[in-house]
């Protein structure tokens, strides 16, 4: 998924990687693919000088990432109009080496910096929430009991532009020191992935109702099971 | 895993849940179980007023959480002696309801606030790094090429006390509005979990070398596969 030599320069010095810069990427194709492959992000905001990191769902439409919650949600209220950091990480594997220090992990991650903004226009907000449902469960929005104005009012949706972002990707086996290669211990990679269990319908779902189709962020990787 | 009514009060007002407080827990048994069930955390620090959220491995020994990286790592350098937020989240399932707003997720998460501190004493640092390897791969430390002083020097380990922390846990099915229960759409839960792929030895591992035993944070859930 990622070229070994980066061709897109960092859009700012704040998102230039200092540690292991060879694992850095700033092209939108790499960034978007990671954002779309996981439904969960961690949002960093500052309250009275103290950082808070809050796990939350995210979805992407075009050049923006979106998050949602209660209109009175603290993280979303603080984030509105201020600089946040939103991070998405996927742990793809454990890397076992012959020395302790060369143990590592395979991963894909994105960090986005910028000012988040609350969407005020009700129609736009409704369209984004539809996009959220559809991104996880394509075709589901029209099958649901329609959203009410009260529900829309109770909900805040924030957008964050993808202008200042970086990706970091590691893959492959352990990078042992040459002199250690004959050390007799198992070394290699243990792949990890998110697996879906069998869908469990609740007691009110009529028998024979088809379970939902799943969107990209939660669909099983083709050939993985 | 979690009592439905919380009996342990929040240790500070900063870690008292405002949204869905009934899902909050402050007892160490609940907090420790979540920290030990996942290897990955997200560390929040503030640099020039800007929050940064960095994904990193963590491990716990007793009343402290530990993280590690390069001695020159920016996140670790900034975190030393300052207030950080470390968040661990596990996504256990997707919850599908009959109305858009009642869609949700099952999850377990912990947020820890406090001052992190770099471990200066080399023997203590070495013992903690051994603890890290052993927590993921019990019995592996003694099988590895011994760690050198240079490697130890290149590495920073930070500790964070678990004094000011909270957990939040959701489980169960959708919480639909009573009037929607007959709406004819599939509703229920799609469980998610982390699955391990088959371990892939690298080219230098002698044939017949046994693959590693796995510790709690990465072992498959009993009965899950
Ligand atoms: C699953 C996972 C586990 C990890 N475990 C560890 C660990 O245990 N120890 C460890 O030292 N590191 C770990 N890393 C890497 C870690 O996220 C940082 O990249 C690394 O620690 C360097 O941090 P720094 O603050 O010095 O970054 P710097 O290189 O100083 O960061 C400068 C800029 O580079 C970009 N950047 C840095 N890291 C990332 C990233 N992960 N994703 C996207 N952009 C980034 C950001 O824009 C940041 O502002 C892990 C990463 C992942 C995804
Ligand atoms: C996997 C996952 C996905 C989530 N998705 C969403 C989403 O899409 N939208 C949404 O609104 N919320 C989501 N949440 C819940 C979210 O993490 C917050 O709890 C919620 O948004 C309230 O945020 P707040 O800033 O108003 O918290 P407040 O209740 O104001 O926070 C006060 C204090 O409560 C504690 N606290 C709050 N949240 C957590 C937590 N998650 N874990 C441990 N302690 C906590 C902290 O100590 C915090 O300082 C998700 C949580 C998880 C784990
Ligand atoms: C199983 C145990 C371990 C795991 C899973 C692990 C994982 C990681 C990961 C994922 C990184 C980030 C690499 C990157 O930025 O791309 C890292 C960095 C680092 N680790 Fe570990 N590690 C382990 C044990 C150790 C030990 C025991 C030491 C010390 C001897 C150590 C020293 C370091 C150092 C110095 C870095 C910084 C690399 C850099 O930023 O240039 N690690 N580790
Ligand atoms: C598939 C889509 C959705 C998912 C996966 C989802 C998930 C979540 C999760 C996990 C929470 C946190 C609950 C908690 O704090 O314990 C939440 C909160 C919330 N969601 Fe959604 N949601 C979805 C769609 C929507 C939609 C479409 C709306 C708007 C109509 C909405 C409105 C809200 C509100 C108002 C809260 C705040 C609850 C509170 O803090 O009291 N959600 N959502």
UniProtKB/TrEMBL annotation, chains A, B:
Region (Disordered): 1-26
A Pfam cross-reference name: Pyridox_ox_2
SUPFAM superfamilies named among the record's database cross-references: FMN-binding split barrel
Xref: InterPro entries: Pyridox_Oxase-rel, Split_barrel_FMN-bd
Domain of life: Bacteria
Basic residues bias (residue ranges): 16-26
PANTHER family given in the database record: 5-NITROIMIDAZOLE ANTIBIOTICS RESISTANCE PROTEIN, NIMA-FAMILY-RELATED PROTEIN-RELATED, FLAVIN-NUCLEOTIDE-BINDING PROTEIN
UniProt name for this protein: Pyridoxamine 5'-phosphate oxidase family protein
């Amino acid at each position: 998924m990622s070229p070994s030599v980066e061709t897109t320069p960092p859009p700012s010095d704040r998102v230039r990687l200092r540690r292991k810069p060879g694992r850095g990427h700033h092209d939108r194709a790499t960034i978007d693919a990671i954002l779309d492959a996981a439904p969960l992000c961690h949002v960093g905001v500052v309250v009275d000088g103290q950082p808070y990191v809050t796990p939350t769902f995210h979805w992407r439409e075009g050049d923006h990432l979106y998050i949602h919650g209660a209109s009175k949600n603290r993280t979303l209220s603080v984030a509105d109009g201020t600089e946040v950091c939103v991070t998405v990480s996927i742990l793809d594997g454990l890397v076992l080496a012959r020395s302790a220090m060369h143990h590592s992990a395979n991963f894909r991650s994105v960090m986005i910096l910028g000012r988040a903004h609350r969407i005020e226009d009700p129609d736009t907000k409704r369209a984004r929430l539809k996009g959220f449902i559809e991104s996880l469960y394509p075709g589901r929005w029209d099958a649901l009991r329609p959203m009410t104005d009260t529900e829309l009012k109770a909900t805040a949706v924030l957008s964050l532009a993808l202008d200042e972002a970086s990706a970091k990707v590691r893959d492959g086996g352990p990078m042992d020191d040459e002199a250690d290669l004959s050390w007799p211990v198992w070394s290699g990679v243990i792949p990890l992935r998110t697996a879906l269990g069998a869908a469990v319908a609740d007691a009110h779902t009529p028998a024979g109702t088809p379970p939902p189709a799943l969107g990209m962020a939660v669909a099983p990787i083709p050939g993985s099971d």
